[in-house]
Amino acid sequence: MQRIEDYGLIGNMISAALVGRDGSIDWLCLPRFDSGACFAALLGTRDNGHWSIAPTSPHVSSRRYIPDTAVLETRFETSQGTVTVTDFMPFTTDEQKVDLVRIVRGVAGTVAMSTELVMRFNYGQAVPWVRRRDYGLSAVAGPDAVELHTTVPLHGQCMTSVADFTVQAGDAVPFTLSYHPSHKMPQFVRDSAESQNQTVSWWREWVKHGQYRSDNDLWSEAVKRSLITLKMLIYQPTGGIIAAPTTSLPETIGGSRNWDYRYCWLRDSALTFYALINAGYRDEAVAWRTWLLRTVAGHPQQMQIMYGMAGERWLPEVEVPWLAGYENSRPVRVGNGAMGQVQHDIYGELMETLHAAREADVSKREDAWTMQQVMLKTLLSTWRDPDHGIWEVRGPVRHFTHSRLMSWVAFDRAVKSVEHFGLDGPVAAWRAARDEIRADILTHGFDTEKGSFVQHYGGKALDAALLLIPQVGFLPADDYRVTGTIAAIERELKRGGLVLRYRPEHVDDGVGGKEGAFLACSFWLADAYVMGGRDAEARDLFNELLGLRNDLGLLAEEYDPIRKRLVGNFPQAFSHIGLINTACNLARPTGGPARQRAERRAPKNGD
Length: 607
Prior knowledge:
By secondary structure, this protein is α+β, with helices and mostly antiparallel strands. It folds into 2 domains: 4-183, Beta-galactosidase, Chain A, domain 5 (Distorted Sandwich), CATH 2.70.98; 234-598, Glycosyltransferase (Alpha/alpha barrel). The strands form 7 sheets. The protein has a 15-stranded antiparallel β-sheet that branches. A hairpin with a 3-residue loop joins β7 (72-77) and β8 (81-88). α4 (269-278) packs across α13 (573-587) and α11 (519-531) packs antiparallel against α12 (535-546).
């Protein structure tokens, strides 16, 4: 079993695969991100599906992304010679027809290679019917089918397709794994070299639109790689952005805090929008806003905290008993039971995102305003109720301070929309609700003994989400209650220089067990430092966080400071969004995303 940081990501904004440092693809869902995995060795054993290509003799490997692309190149050096394996997923306009291309190229000498293909559909459970074809292989299992196109002759061995071949300097040996629904005809497979050239060109053209600028080359490259990673996590047909392309990678090795993150969370909305708009990717920001509007359309009391990539609402959580889990971290879960939770913070996220979109001139001012008014009418009657909070605790519902904070944001942005854009609405009622919630938070959410805001009313536990208080404009960064909260979080939630979401031993979250430091929260602390004028500390923390990326520039959800390993689903959009926003805040301390949020504005074209 490889470490989480030993994997790289390739994708085409329909699906994605994790490629190990050893040349094995151990995770791939076809045809979509949320489909059943056909390579599931990541969460089980090699018999649950993988595809390896590597030299047969001892070797040393290194890897890189071809600059400014999502095309991964792994270099294997042996005593007989050197080869590279280039992995990528070409773009497609048909979401039911997805290709994965691997090209083995000889660099020097002659290298003996082997490949082992174990197809197991339905999350590593279903063994397909494999037949030899003149172009390679065909594999079918129920609704799913793949064709393997290659010049290398493979043969069956113990329910596995294997081959040995040699590569000399100058050789190029192609493999294309092409998916199609089993009841449809296979698709045409393009020349692999031509497909690589087109894919490289597309990515490089897309990267040119980026607007982040810094004198620090490390920061610039980190932001660029994070943007490419975030782009790979966008489901292109709808514009929805998944939290991660994986499920059940554990928050603690051997633990049970294992969740399916192949869905889209509303809690990430505003930070995602600001990251995209500040980095210059307005088309993606518009697509995200449009996905939000389509997805939450309907009765406001039925608004969920998360949805499928196309806006699906039914995401039932089940356990997969035949998978042993990553490093025996059980259970493996598919679906996410948090879909049925109540979280009042999502109203604030939605209202802030739509307000920011108007400020950035990426939407008509009246567009969606009627829907927003209906949602605010619901929030007027529900904001006093307890909920499950931003972290989706599975313990008792509580009056979470962050949930109240984002309810305040919802009414504040509604008032600002009326004031800035002349929109109609019951602004007096919204101002009254905003003032009432503010007083409620200051009275019940702040603990005078601790000198800090607390996670929930009547409690003493801290919560890293409270770092967002100055960002959303509730209190200025130099307010004693803000600085006191930051100091308390530094005392109680920092581990190895990084920030925990909360301390599980102090909170009944219904799950139990430990977890790593949450990387997005650590970026929020750096943002709080910037807003408080502590620039040197912000830079130090940011550089420390950059040092946690793997050699390809990728971050998971969390980091285990004891084992010194990435943990949680990987790569995690929220972590990379945090990186992008903090880099922009450091580049423009008085005008970055944190200040923009606090001042209820967003950059327009040319800003």
